[in-house]
Design brief:
The protein is an alpha+beta fold. It has four domains: 56-65 and 383-448, Beta Barrel (conserved putative lor/sdh protein from methanococcus maripaludis s2 fold); 67-75 and 292-380, Elongation Factor Tu (Ef-tu), domain 3, CATH 2.40.30; 85-190 and 252-273, no CATH class; 199-249. Helices cover 25% and strands 33% of the residues. It contains seven helices and 20 strands. The chain has helices at 5-37, 41-47, 143-154, 169-182, 199-219, 227-249, 301-304; strands at 54-59, 61-83, 98-101, 108-109, 114-118, 121-127, 187-189, 252-254, 260-263, 268-273, 286-299, 312-316, 323-331, 353-359, 371-389, 394-395, 401-406, 412-423, 426-431, 442-448. The protein has a six-stranded antiparallel beta barrel. Helix 5 packs antiparallel against helix 6 (227-249). Residues 200-250 form a coiled coil. Residues 142-177 form the Peptidoglycan binding-like domain. This is Peptidoglycan-binding protein.
Length: 449
């Protein structure tokens, strides 16, 4: 039997109300869940507390501790010389002109090599440490003459029985042999200008004249001779012969100051060749360098007091990758600007205290002129010592210096220490009063949030 139409409508209304009530309950539950478990970023940040701090630690170590100074340096020769066209003996009034150039920039050369020719005269190099400052000619004496004699000997030209430091007959012969080997005629000292003022020729003529006069007096019959005239003539002859000996002693092959440069070691290098064939010899013909390669660096005022001769140095060439050990040879007492001193022109940077470093072994010639890094060992513990990072050390109000050890269980233990040598971010420490501190233990160096 079917329900009446009125009852059917009532039943549908009841089901709709029930569905509506159920949906409301579900929505209320969802709202409650959302308010409980879903939070905005701002609310989450507000309710969150600060994170627990992380303790930063570093191990206690045993190592050789060094305090280093790092600077820059330039590899250069121990001696650099500018060859200048100083006045040559016997040159005319015309300005000197470059007639030959035998070497190019960058080339190396041995002792006795002609580098350039000026107005037909050679400019050559000989071994020696004293700079040339005068013409070296027969009759001169001094250390520069001794240096010349030694240089001649190294090239195979003996100076005979000449006393060391005295330009005598043997040295004349050796100089003549040197110029012959170079392919040039030597300049002759005391030869005059070729117009009759040669002192040796004049002295010889005087000897001849007096000798003839004496011979004429002696040809007279014995009973007619004038004894006084003969005695005077003989005295005049002796004086003339003395003057001839003196003139001959200071005449002969010489080495003009304009034709030689003395260098400390060979092979030497041509740093720059400024001379050009056909051009006038300007203020500088060439720049040459010689001797063992060294490194010149510059120190600041705060670094200068830390560096002393004898300290170890590590040199690094970033261009070639060469690593060379060396030692500090010297430290300047006063600051020097590079342009003030020819020997420090290779120092990088501005004004500073020049430090010279010598390598323990010969530096490769390819490093000449290279900028390199210098690490100078300013101080060292000498042996392995107990060290901790500098940041691990703290000083209290009671002036006690301590480090904090973090135990494995998280507990912290303060250890009083006595600090020592510092370097490279570490400090030597010695436990005080029997306190325990061993390599491998962790010390607190900071806290990171």
């Amino acid at each position: 039997m079917s329900e009446p139409s009125g009852s059917s409508g009532l039943s549908r209304r009841k089901r709709a109300v029930a569905a509506l009530a159920t949906g409301a309950v579900v929505l209320a539950g969802a709202a409650l869940w959302t308010s409980t478990f879903v939070k905005s970023p701002a609310q989450a940040a507000a309710e969150a507390g600060p994170p627990a701090p992380d303790v930063l630690t570093a191990p206690v170590e045993r190592r050789v501790l060094s305090d280093t100074v790092v600077t820059r340096g330039v590899v250069s020769a121990s001696q650099t010389v500018d060859i200048a066209p100083v006045g040559a003996a016997g040159e005319g009034s015309a300005a000197p002109v470059v007639t030959k150039v035998m070497m190019r920039s960058g080339q190396t050369f041995k002792a006795g090599r002609v580098l350039v020719e000026v107005s037909g005269r050679p400019v050559f190099a000989l071994p020696g440490k004293l700079p040339v400052y005068r013409d070296l000619k027969p009759g001169t004496h001094g250390d520069d003459v001794r240096q010349l004699q030694k240089a001649l000997g190294t090239l195979g030209h003996s100076t005979g029985s000449d006393e060391a430091g005295t330009y005598g007959p043997g040295t004349k012969q050796a100089v003549a042999a040197l110029y012959a080997a170079l392919g040039y005629e030597p300049v002759v000292a005391g030869a005059g200008d070729g117009e009759g003022d040669d002192p040796v020729s004049a002295a010889r003529d005087q000897v001849k004249e007096v000798q003839r006069r004496l011979d004429g007096l002696l040809e007279v019959d014995a009973d007619k001779r004038d004894a006084d005239d003969i005695r005077y003539a003989r005295e005049d002859l002796a004086d003339a012969k003395t003057r001839l000996t003196e003139a001959e002693a200071v005449s002969g092959p010489m080495v003009p100051a304009s034709e030689v440069v003395f260098l400390a070691g060979f092979p030497a290098r041509v740093d720059a060749m400024d001379a050009e064939v056909g051009g006038e010899a300007g203020e500088k013909l060439a720049t040459v360098s010689a001797g063992r390669l060294v490194i010149r660096g510059s120190l600041g005022a705060q670094e200068k007091d830390l560096v002393r001769p004898g300290q170890k140095v590590e040199m690094l060439s970033e261009v070639y990758g060469d690593e060379v050990a060396g030692t500090v040879a010297s430290v300047a007492d006063v600051p020097t600007a590079p342009e003030d001193d020819k020997d420090t022109s290779a120092v990088p940077g501005g004004q500073g205290y020049v430090v010279v470093v010598k390598a323990d072994s010969a530096l490769p010639t390819r490093l000449a002129g290279q900028d390199v890094r210098l690490t100078i060992e300013a101080a060292t513990s000498g042996e392995k010592v107990l060290v901790v990072p500098v940041s691990a050390i703290s000083a209290g109000a009671d002036s006690r210096t301590t480090v904090t050890v973090l135990e494995r269980d998280g507990e912290r233990r303060r250890v009083e220490v006595r600090p020592g040598t510092s370097g490279d971010g570490y400090t030597e420490v010695t436990p005080v009063g029997g306190a325990r501190l061993a390599p491998g233990e962790k010390v607190v160096v900071g806290v990171a949030r």
